[in-house]
Write the C-alpha cells for this entry.
Amino acid sequence: MGSNFKEKHLKPLIAGVVFLLAYLPTLIWMWDRWYARDSYYSHGILIPVVSIILIWQMRWELAKIKKSSSGWGLPLIITGMAVHVFGVLMRVYFVSGFSMLLVLVGLILFFYGKAVFKKIMFPVLFLVFMIPVPLVIIVNISFKMKIFAAKIAAIVLNSSGIPAVREGSLIRMRHTQVVVDDVCSGLRSLISLMALGSIFAYWMKATLGRKLALFLTAIPIAVITNVLRIIFLACVAEIWGVKIAGGFLHDASGFLVFAGAFVLLYVMARVIE
C-alpha cells in the first residue's frame, strides 16, 4: 500500500510543495489583504478551507475515477507560471493570484486528468473568491455603491415623513446627519454573499440556468439589505441621536443585516429550486 501511495501521489505532493513555495509572495500579499483594517476580504481565509472540505467529501468518488494525464496540463502550468513571474516582478499580485488558479488547474489535469478535474471543478474555481480585487477597483465600486445607497435611503426617508437632503454620501436630516462611508457601501456584504450564493447554487439540484439565477440574486439582496440598514441607522440617529446609532448598534446592525441577507439567499434557493 505504501509503494502504491508513493507511485500515485508522491510526484503530485512534490509539485504541490513547489507550487506553494513559488507562490509564497502572492500568498503573503493575500494574507495581508485578508487581515487589513476594514478589509473587504476578511472571509478569504475560509475559502480554501471550504474548497478542501468539498473535495474531501468527494474522496470516495474520486478514488473510483481512472487517473490519466491530460495534454492541456503542461501548457496551462507554463502559461500560469509565466504570468506569475510577470505579476511578481511588476508587483501586480492580483494578476499573480489568478495565475495561481491557472497553474493549479494545470497541475490537476497533468497528474490526474480531465475526469478528476471535472469532478472537483467547482471547489477549485471557488478559490477565486479568496483573491482580493485591486484596491483601485474596490474604491471605485465602493464609491458608486455608497452614493447609490445614500440616494435610495434619502428617497425612502423623505417618503416616510423624515425630511432628508443628500449631499454626495452625506444625508442631512432635521436634527442630525449621517455619512455613508466606504465600509457601509455594502461591497463587503456583496462579495461575501456572492461566495455564499455560489455554494448554494452548487448544492442546488436544478438546471444551470437556475443555478446562475440564484447566484445573481446575491447582488440585489446585498444592495437592498444594506440600504435598509442605512435607513434604520438614519432613523435611529434622527430620533435618539448619533451616539445611539453609532458604536454597538452600528456594528450589531451589520451582523444582523448579513444574517438577514443569508436567510433571504437561502429562501431564494428554495424558491428557485
Q: What stands out?
A: Residues 208-240 form the longest helix (33 residues). Residues 8 and 186 are 46 Å apart (CA to CA).
